[in-house]
UniProtKB/TrEMBL annotation:
Stored Pfam families: RmlD_sub_bind
Bilayer-crossing regions: none
Organism: Streptomyces mashuensis
The enzyme's E.C. designation: 1.1.1.133
Protein name: dTDP-4-dehydrorhamnose reductase
One cellular component (GO) term of this entry: cytosol
Annotated gene: rfbD
Amino acid sequence: MLPPPNAQWLVVGAAGMLGRDLTACLARRGIGAAPLDRHALDVTDAAATFAAVARHRPAVVVNCAAWTAVDAAEARPGEAMKVNGDGPAHLARACRASGARLLQLSTDYVFAGDARVPYRELDPPDPRTSYGRSKLAGERAVLEILPEAGYVVRTAWLYGAGGRNFVSTMIRLEARQETVTVVDDQHGQPTWSADLAERLVALGTAALRDAAPPGVYHATNTGAATWCGLARETFALLGADPGRVRPTTSEALGRPAPRPGFSVLDQGRWREAGLEPLRDWRRALAAALPALCAAAGRPGPER
């Protein structure tokens, strides 16, 4: 992926689901962008990272590059830390030298996942997994190195047309299986990557006007669901019987890394930047489904 020189924005990890949506969003708004996939820039390489930022001289850098394999991070924590912890630190130092703002994507996994009310941006993190610890290390590096120009954007439960994700899996399984079994004891916020991309552009634009204070922002579609609830809503939008989705427990799956039982995020800081939080997750899912169905090679829901 060969980017144009001297773009206004630099999108790191541009070949992923969110990176693709962000690049498309910037193009629709006529904002110059240099999309760099992992072959064009390995964020674990400090020298290459510094050189890329210096070469493109962006006003805003958005880091969508991440190790997202939660279970694999338990077995390979050092590798996850290089990508999720060291990579953001390299980008932050490069942005400090160039004067760019940095938007660092992070995750609900930085919290313990045992709350009863939504986590606020300033609540103390307490990750319970190697993945969560690596993402928290990246957060802290950005905030420490770029106190006036670093933005940590935590999101969760991402789905979109440009990559593998839970909703796309449910679309495929609905067509192939009579029933599916899905966890019903994890509560979070399904988030459409295209909606998140729109908010990232809005936040970065506000940051360039000095209208958005640096620090931590939560960016998820609002409301809350379980994975089972999300699957049932997907089936219903497809015109299928939601009862075909059967609930199970996290314990029954026995995954290596524990999943947060409750990781709903509060969106309070958006209004400090004069911006609206993301819309309700059900509205977003209904809007996203035609594109997800097209990506899965099946007809979309009838309107």
